[in-house]
Specification:
The protein is α+β, with helices and mostly antiparallel strands. The protein is built from 4 helices and 8 strands, in the order αββααββαββββ. It has helices at about 5-20, 45-60, 60-70, 80-95, and strands at about 30, 35, 70, 75, 100-110, 115-120, 125-135, 140-145. It has a 4-stranded antiparallel beta sheet with strand order 5-6-7-8. Strands 1-2 form a two-stranded antiparallel sheet. Strands 3-4 form a two-stranded antiparallel ribbon. A hairpin with a 5-residue loop joins strand 5 (about 100-110) and strand 6 (about 115-120). Helix 2 runs antiparallel to helix 3 and helix 3 packs across helix 4. The longest helix is centred in the middle third of the chain and has 15 residues, at about 80-95.
Length: about 160
């Protein structure tokens, strides 16, 4: 029996070690057979997508935000580099910092989307912003965009009182 040494050991480790990692979640498919890459991505309804996105922003959790932010093609995490996504979600979270929120209306939008007006309160400020939410793969819902300009004063430091 020969000992494996040198480059052969490196090759063997390269082939064997990836198999030792924790396995990824099993692929999920819709009833139509469409793959859903990340079963944790999206939400079951338009309002749940917005509520989850806001909850994640309030908790300063860019990973959870990214799972709920996307297009009809799916979450942003499937199209952009992880570091860029994290930076973008952290920037958006600044505008979404709030003490309270409520859905003011939930209207049918263009195509398969919905338009939800959300009222956010931060300290003495109350602002409304329209969120566009779309249905993606597997019937999962994603926040596609929101009126960030309506929340611009939420992202400013509090003035000393």
């Amino acid at each position: 029996m020969r000992k494996i040494v040198g480059p052969a050991l490196v090759v063997a480790a390269t082939l064997v070690l990836p198999a030792c990692r924790a396995s990824a979640p099993a692929a999920v498919v819709t009833s139509a057979g469409e793959p859903v890459a990340d079963p944790r991505a999206g939400a079951g309804s338009a309002s749940a997508a917005v509520e989850g996105f806001l909850r994640a922003a309030r908790a300063n959790d860019p990973t959870a935000m990214a799972r709920l932010f996307g297009t009809t093609a799916g979450p942003i995490t499937e199209r952009e580099a992880a570091d860029a996504v994290e930076k973008r979600m952290r920037a958006l979270a600044c505008y979404l910092t709030h003490d309270a929120s409520r859905i003011v209306d939930n209207l049918v939008g263009v195509g398969q989307g919905r338009a939800l007006t959300i009222e956010l309160t931060q300290r003495e400020l109350t602002r409304r912003s329209r969120f566009t939410v779309v249905s993606g793969p597997g019937g999962r819902w994603f926040v596609e965009q929101f009126e960030i300009d309506k929340l611009s004063d939420f992202c400013r430091p509090a003035t000393p009182g």
